[in-house]
Write a structure and sequence with these properties.
heterodimer, A: 5-stranded mixed sheet, B: mainly alpha
Chain lengths: 687, 299
């Protein structure tokens, strides 16, 4: 085509052709096209609601008038655009303006509603847009911007008629480009291929939208009833899960270490193989590995950051004689009818040791409750355990009664006159308490037994409590024998009853006590440091917790000796040796492939077993079944996959899509790379 | 610093030297020696960058696509390659300093990311299938070459405004860079669509990766259409390409997000959630090369 003809026809490339569309005009037309489509979409979506409101008699005339005006404007613009459609379709500036507009719209969509992806819905897009606009522009302005953004469907480009209108224009322009240019010959192949490719892609889009089927996140489990495909309507087939297979990387047995107080690091060691490494100033060697090992905790002599002082005891009497290490902070119950608790307490100063031997220990409190005639509890008051409550005030706030404990017996009974008497020991008699009301020493008293039952008090209760019953609840005493060590290794034994200390008895290394009838306790040695370590259980039972374990040897530079320790995977804090802590961890087991084996069937019977794996979708009867994931559940051998998630889709245009993509890329390469030339350098040098 | 880091540093130095020599060589017409040295340095830097990219892939045991900084080890040689191809064809070196310095900077930024990476539980679509390498190669080339084109457009705008020199070669270089890089970007988009179809059963889901790549494609396509089909003024068209650099900067971090089962574009957890698993303050602990000792008998 000559330049004169190009100018006459206004073909692209001509600078002075009649009716040439400039860039400002193209941008305006693009904007009009977009707004027309958005207006039509809004009218369509709101028409039903508006008509319904009108039918209900609501005043919607202004809305209807505005909608009508918008429709008229759209129609007028459409007529104008259609009159110049031919010129618009072949205008490259128009195409450029549409491309830029699409780029801006898609970018704005990502800015206003990011994290788009499968599963987006209009309501989720609206919520995301509102939240993002609120973050960017504040509450007030953000609402207005969000309204505009949602009107333009920026949060959901796929559903926007404006975007569809622009894409449709590009499709028509491609058709016009092919029709007008009539590309023939090798040089025009790129142009033809690129435009045909775009047309095929858009055709595939339309086919997917109109005829496609997509069902995402379908979870199936074994022993579930067969799932029809497609859901709803006449199924082409049904599918049922037979099993899930998986391939995982082998387990790694990792040895981690850290200097005490520092962050741990992974050592260059395989805990399942005999190997050694140097790490900082330590050398670590794996000596033994067991894939399944039951662990038992032992207390052994040793020193570490977690070691505690302990005293060796020999307990004899009821039951076989045994030796034990009693640590600070840990109690032990010795046998006999009194079931005495033992504890070892160590203090650096004599004053602290004296205080520990003489101060009361907290314990559970008794409880005195006021019960109304209907059985409900009207009030209650806590009381210190044991004899400490004698002389203490007792206040019932709800009833406004102030009392005082005048007497308490650990085993009591009421005589015929209702007075509190000591019951014979060993008879199981409950404690008893005597209280007095306000009025000084001459105030009348009343008594209650601690048998946990609501009863009328014996005696003369104050006026506030007349007509009520009292329930006195007590907790059994837990006698505690404290072995208190002061400075210079001086021991004393103090028995606490009801939390109150008794007489302190001196105890030396080698000395004996009889803390409970039938039980003898002997301090066989001086205090020593102990640590808790895990060792393989020699004779594990069948229901033990078996874990991987390895035995390592640790040595430290400077000849600080060599320690061997067992590391059990997942057991407690790290094992310490020579200033470092070590742990065995398992890793690896990453999933490499999962396969869901499905059984497909139709009305004529079973079609067979079909596997579907990651990146290997199953194609059957026009449907594509994709494995999207699977839930895992813990098992003895590690996590196993269950309940796979499938995505089932049918896309009639998929091959048109692939062909269009291929042509588009090929056309782009042909069209663009053939423009590259080798030009001479400024001074003629080609280098 | 280990061998990989030294290699990357060397590549960055050569690219910067190539850029440093390029400007005087371009401004002074009869300096063939400088032009040769510039080209040799740029070629050597690009080759070293490619080798570093391959070695980083091997050392990490996975593609260097864990973070955007890691991906720069792929983009840096692509930027250099884009400049070299256009410089060989269009003989334009005016933007060489800017482009090669950008490549050198990308290489430098990627050094700590690649040499002391976080050990990330990468999910790569089960086995990644045949799509991973073509996608990464196309994406790296597309983003790299188009970044070179956008930088050349920016250089064109500056030189044309301030120096009023003859910028015909630079204008041609800008266009040819865009022509060279656009098909790679389009190919990466197409490959990711096909990959997504295999993984999700849906080839387009408006994910961040797809949307931003589409935006960049549309912007570059608009430039190509307007400038050399619609005969737009050079300056106005160059603005579009220069501004597409911003779009590319927004799109590039999403390029590492690849289709994976259980959710599109999920490859990583946030790096700060995981502590470094390698030794502190030094190179990663080498894998033991001694023959494997016999395994223990186990219970």
């Amino acid at each position: 085509m000559s330049e004169a003809e190009a100018e006459k026809t206004g073909a692209p490339g001509s600078k002075r052709g009649p009716g040439r569309i400039g860039m400002p005009t193209a941008l305006v037309v693009t904007g009009c096209l977009f707004l027309m489509a958005v207006a039509l979409q809004s009218l369509r979506e709101n028409a039903a609601e508006t008509l319904r409101s009108m039918g209900e008699g609501n005043p919607v005339l202004p809305v209807v008038a505005l909608g009508g005006l918008a429709l008229v404007v759209v129609v007028v613009l459409a007529v104008v655009l259609l009159r110049h459609l031919g010129k618009l379709l072949v205008s490259v500036r128009m195409i450029g303006a549409v491309l830029l507009a699409l780029a801006v719209l898609v970018a704005a969509g990502q800015l206003f509603a990011p994290e788009a992806g499968p599963g987006r819905t209009e309501s989720s897009a609206a919520a995301r847009v509102a939240e993002r606009c609120g973050d960017l522009f504040g509450e007030g302005a953000g609402e207005r911007v969000a309204g505009v953004a949602m009107l333009a469907r920026l949060g959901d480009p796929a559903g926007s008629w404006g975007v569809r209108a622009l894409i449709g224009f590009l499709a028509l322009a491609s058709l016009a480009g092919i029709g007008w240019r009539r590309p023939v010959g090798v040089r025009e192949f790129g142009h033809l291929a690129a435009h045909l490719g775009v047309l095929l892609i858009l055709l595939a889009l339309a086919a997917r939208a109109l005829f496609g089927y997509h069902q995402s996140d379908l979870r199936i489990a074994r022993d579930q009833t067969p799932v029809p495909v497609p859901a709803g309507g006449r199924p082409a087939f049904t599918l049922r899960l037979l099993r899930v297979e998986e391939e995982r990387r082998p387990t790694e047995y990792q040895v981690w270490a850290a200097p005490v107080g520092a962050e741990s690091e992974r050592l260059d060691l395989d805990g399942s193989r005999r190997s050694s490494t140097r790490w900082r100033e330590w050398s670590v060697e794996v000596l033994e590995f067991r894939a399944r090992c039951a662990a038992e905790e032992r207390v052994e002599e040793g020193s570490s950051s977690t070691s505690r002082p302990a005293i060796p005891l020999r307990l004899s009497g009821e039951g076989p004689e045994e030796e034990a290490l009693l640590e600070t902070g840990q109690g032990r119950v010795v046998g006999g009818p009194r079931r005495l608790r033992l504890g070892y307490e160590r203090f650096a100063s004599a004053a602290e040791a004296d205080a520990a031997a003489t101060r009361d220990r907290p314990g559970p409190e008794d409880r005195l409750a006021v019960i109304a005639p209907d059985g409900s509890e009207r009030d209650f008051a806590p009381l210190p355990a044991g004899a400490r409550k004698v002389g203490r005030p007792v206040l019932f706030r709800n009833l406004g009664a102030a009392l005082r404990v005048t007497r308490w017996l650990s085993a009591a009974q009421l005589d015929a006159a209702g007075q509190l008497q000591e019951a014979p020991p060993g008879g199981g008699a409950p404690p008893g308490i005597e209280l007095a009301g306000a009025g000084g020493p001459e105030a009348p008293t009343f008594r209650v037994l601690g048998d946990g039952r609501a009863a009328e008090p014996a005696g003369t209760p104050p006026a506030e409590l007349r007509g009520f019953r009292l329930k006195y609840e007590t907790f059994p005493d837990r006698p505690y024998l404290a072995l208190i060590e002061g400075p210079a290794g001086a021991f004393r034994a103090v028995e606490f009853r009801w939390g109150q200390p008794g007489e302190a008895r001196a105890l030396a290394v080698g000395g004996e006590l009889e803390p409970a009838a039938g039980t003898r306790l002997r301090l066989v040695g001086a205090p020593r440091q102990v640590v808790h370590v895990w060792r393989p259980r020699q004779q594990p039972g069948s229901n033990e917790d078996f874990r991987p374990a390895c035995r390592i040897a640790v040595a430290r530079a400077g000849g600080a000796g060599r320690r061997e320790l067992w590391l059990f995977e997942g057991r407690g804090p790290a094992e310490e040796a020579l200033g470092a802590a070590f742990q065995l961890r398992t890793g690896g087991r990453e999933l490499q492939q999962q396969t869901a084996v499905l059984e497909l069937a139709d009305k004529r019977g079973t079609l067979g077993e079909y596997p579907v794996s990651y990146n290997r979708p199953l194609r059957v009867r026009g449907y594509q079944i994709v494995l999207a994931g699977a839930d895992t559940q813990a098992s003895a051998g590690g996590p196993v996959s269950v309940a796979p998630a499938l995505i089932i889709s049918r896309d009639y245009g998929i091959w048109a899509l692939y062909a269009g993509m291929f042509l588009a890329v090929l056309g782009a390469v042909w069209l663009l790379w053939t423009r590259l030339r080798n030009v001479a350098d400024a001074d003629g040098w080609e280098a | 610093m280990d061998a990989l880091g030294a290699l990357q540093l060397g590549a960055a130095a050569l690219l910067a030297v190539g850029g440093g020599f390029a400007v005087p060589g371009a401004l002074r017409a009869s300096r063939p020696l400088w032009r040769r040295l510039s080209r040799i340095a740029a070629v050597a830097g690009t080759v070293l960058g490619l080798i570093a990219a391959a070695l980083s892939w091997r050392a990490l045991g996975r593609p260097p696509a864990g973070t955007a900084a890691e991906m720069l080890v792929l983009a840096a040689p692509a930027i250099g390659l884009g400049y070299l191809v256009i410089e060989a064809f269009a003989k334009s070196r005016e933007a060489g300093l800017l482009v090669l310095l950008a490549a050198a900077g990308a290489e430098l930024v990627s050094i700590p990311a690649v040499n002391e990476p976080f050990d990330l539980p990468l999910r790569m679509a089960g086995p990644a299938g045949p799509w991973l390498i073509p996608y990464l190669a196309a994406a790296a080339l597309g983003y790299g070459v188009l970044a070179a084109a956008a930088l050349q457009a920016a250089a064109f705008l500056v030189l044309e405004h301030f120096r009023r020199v003859q910028v015909e070669r630079l204008s041609r270089a800008v266009y040819w860079s865009a022509c060279l890089g656009f098909p790679f970007l389009l190919a990466s988009l197409v490959i990711s669509c096909v990959w997504s179809q295999q993984v999700h059963g849906s080839w387009w889901d408006w994910t961040a990766r797809q949307s931003w790549t589409l935006v960049l494609c549309l912007a570059v396509l608009a430039y190509l259409n307007l400038r050399f089909v619609g005969d737009w003024p050079e300056r106005a068209a160059a603005w579009i390409l220069a501004l597409s650099l911003l779009v590319g900067a927004a799109a590039f971090p999403h390029a590492r997000e690849m289709p994976a089962p259980g959710g599109d574009a999920t490859v990583l957890v946030e790096p700060r959630e995981l502590p470094p698993q390698r030794g502190r303050g030094g190179s990663p602990a080498p894998r033991p090369r001694s023959p494997k000792p016999p395994a223990f008998t186990t219970d």
